Amino acid sequence: MSLIETLARMEAVAAGRARPRCTVRHRHLSESPLVLVPLTTAGEAGAPLGALVGTDREKPALLAVPQPRNRDLRFAFLAELAETVLPYVDGFADAVEWEERKETDPETGKKVPVQVELCADAPQLIVPSAAGVEYVRLLGRSMRFRRTAEQEPEAAHPAPPHVPLLGRWLTHFGERARVPGAGLLLPMTGLLARHWATGQSVLEDQHLGALLAWIDPPPGRSGQEAAEFAESARDADGQLRCPPAGPATDPAFDNRLLAPAMARYDAGLTGAEEELRALIEGQLRPTWDAVWRGLDLLRALPEGARVADRWKRDRWSYTAHRDRVRAGEPPQPRRDDAVTAAQKLSARETAQAQLDAQEALDDPLVMAGRRLAGEAFAGTVTAVEMAMSEGKRPMPRPLVTLRTADRPLLSGGAKLYRPLADGRTQPAEFVAYAPGEPDVLVVRLTGGMGRSRTPEPGSVPEPADTVCWTLFEHAPRGGPELPDPEDTPWTHGGPPSATTDAPHETADPVTAEDFL
Amino acid sequence: MTALQDPPPTAGAGARDADPSVAAAAATDAILRDTLHGTRRGVVVDSPPGAGKSTLVVRAARELAAAGRPLMIVAQTNAQVDDLVLRLAEKDPELPVGRLHSSEPGAFDPALAELPAVRTSAKIADLAGLDVVVSTAAKWAYTKVEEPWRHAIVDEAYQMRSDALLSVAGLFERALFVGDPGQLDPFSVVGAEQWAGLTYDPSASAVSTLLAHNPDLPQHRLPVSWRLPASAAPLVSAAFYPYTPFRSGTGPGERRLAFGVPGDGSGVDRVLDEAAESGWGLLELPARRTPRTDPEAVRAVALVVRRLLDRGGAASGEHAPEPTPLTAARIAVGTAHRDQAAAVRAALAELGVSDVTVDTANRLQGREFDVTVVLHPLSGRPDATAFHLETGRLCVLASRHRHACIVVCRAGVADLLDEHPSTEPVSLGVTVKFPDGWEANHAVLAHLQEHRVAWRP
């Protein structure tokens, strides 16, 4: 945990209320996100119990499985989920704008500009917690290799239409959620914890009710009291007053309410199904409301300046997967091959570096944390001395003297960066501390001043200006190009076709457990 | 090649009693034979700290070049590449060596420009036809060639990530992989759990991927540490290399550290005397939970360095029987975090000490000093995270010295360890590494307790 976050948490404990970690919102929030609150069945991996889903906070669709051990009922649930989610996901597919992109021409091998479609907006799924994101991945994995009756007429238990397609989309959202700063699938606990520091541990922040209690406690209560109530208060029947955000349910609910109700359903009693649906909705509804309350809190924050840039990458991601589905490509493979795995890791590392830089540039409070960590420094310019570079074409290399109270981790020649008013980044390098004055340092500007012998106006700070330099790059580059999967080298097992025994698009093998 | 020509097994009891240089030479011969005449595409060499890894790389490169087989060398950092080029030129000033570097100014050591047979360039085409071309993995990854090299040497292969090897492996047909399995594993700043257990997990080390796909490659190890003194090799070997033991090249008493100025009886001086005598010293501060840059511990580290210099330390050993003065350049301070290193640097500057290397374990990898002063990674902490428990971190910090290592630490680390057993998730298909950091920390701590000087600043 960074020093500034530790400080914010200590302040939150002292104040009895969460402290802001940001002054702006660092994630894009869709105008109409799809909120999905899933519940799973205890002891049955991947057997959904129910869900509330929808884009209208007043009218969520309730999907419930009265007997999760019945595979037909589970399929009915998934089919219903597909009917609810897919129209929302597809709803963004046709409104497109055109973008120019460089692509390699297959004939000449040269990079040529081409016009490609980019969806104007993209779907956004909000789930209550990180466990919810994991559950979306699990659902995606369990559905995308299913075969419908159309695909395989002889199979014993064909999946309803659209179920494999929903599995592919949920898999795509789940993978995209692993990219730092991406916004196609977001957990509410993660969103809130990014923007507020509570007086509890990071682990406790996983509880949506407790987290909201710290951020927005009810009148007359401290965050700590409200969080304790949310986590552990039970009514006279021993049921939690604030049900868990799922997908796991509370054992007291399972044992005392759910199990007897399921037994009545299994016995065929009239009204048993309605009773079960009401029970499941009772567990889901408080979480549903909490997610929307969280959205209200987040929407009150203004959006960071570079958030739209990151959302655009989400739109690219959505557009690309739309194209793969339209082209009839097979579902995502069970495991990444060596090249794909390395590509994903490299892309995510770049995304993380970009996210860290962009958040700091968008938000003085985040930048304060970087300054406290010695990764940036701000101060007042006390002197500017014009100097020129050596060489055939001398270029301006002004020396800027800065007084700062920060303690950056600098060594000689360290590269520095600062944003210019027009959005460009100006490179510089650390020269030295002023003799005998540890809070005065000299920086040499090394670029961003135009091509002429005199710097462009506004590109060199003036005495009394306040300037903030970072030790980190503002737009870090991605990693090197990797070989094509067909050229996977011998060190990594050679091309994947030689190592995987089955083609990717085959269905999962049916095991004895499938027919229990 | 027949069995009769094979050298005796290096791990056998017979070899252990033999002269260390004989054992080391036998291991080197076997490695070179597999590299020059073997039929397999790869050869893996495990090298404990200071076992002559760089010497081996230089020798293998020269022998390959002498046999008319040009090769590329992949190292991990620019400092390592520059160091290798300097060593190659020192051994063979005539050998045509290319240093491929990035196009940024100051990308390589200016000393290389003085070497007549070394050519430097940012473009591989300028270096065509040279016997040896050396660069970093990062630069090689951006390099494209028509025809792959027939040979390569990959240095510090255990610190190279699997995905870095993936992007350069197309450049060569066969390679010698050299590295130290005990040092810090490569890491990723983003989660890579989804690939844990896959043979080609991109966040794993290059060697683990290589061996997972090519399990029958010849594997060798260098059996003798020439750096570590007789006082350190048994501990480092037992704590960090339990199944692949090594020993020191020098015997007890061959290396000596002495001070011209007698101690003043303070805790700092007593721990210096203890370290000069036994090779290890633990300066134990009272138990306390502190911020990372614990001001008392940082000051204690700086004082130890100041007194090391003030007391006129002199080191003698197998290369220099006459005592040579212990200068600031031969001392290093190791920490776990960069802010700790910065705090130590500031404290040293206050005491008027300059030119002492102060850095984190990551940056001290591969370096060697006469005396090291270590701020224990767990000192003053309320918890023991995977980062602080990492075996490699402690191994690097405890194996940089030729004479003595002084550890500065708050009391209570043993209890802290007992309260925080490793709780890392276990993934299917991932080879469990031995020893785990918890075990290694306890082993080192138990040894240090015998050289403990308690001190209240």
From TrEMBL, chain A:
Region of interest (Disordered), residue spans: 474-516
Superkingdom of the organism of origin: Bacteria
Name the UniProt record assigns to this protein: Uncharacterized protein
Organism of this sequence: Streptomyces nigrescens
Origin organism lineage: Bacteria, Bacillati, Actinomycetota, Actinomycetes, Kitasatosporales
From TrEMBL, chain B:
Highest taxon of the lineage: Bacteria
Disordered: annotated segments: 1-20
Domain DNA2/NAM7 helicase-like C-terminal span(s) in chain numbering: 298-410
Claim: ATP-binding is one of the keywords in the record: yes
Keyword DNA damage: no
Comp. bias intervals (Pro residues): 1-10
Any Pfam family hit: AAA_30
Keywords: ATP-binding, Helicase, Hydrolase, Nucleotide-binding
InterPro entries in UniProt: Coronavir_polyprotein_1ab, DNA2/NAM7-like_C, P-loop_NTPase
Protein name according to UniProt: AAA domain-containing protein
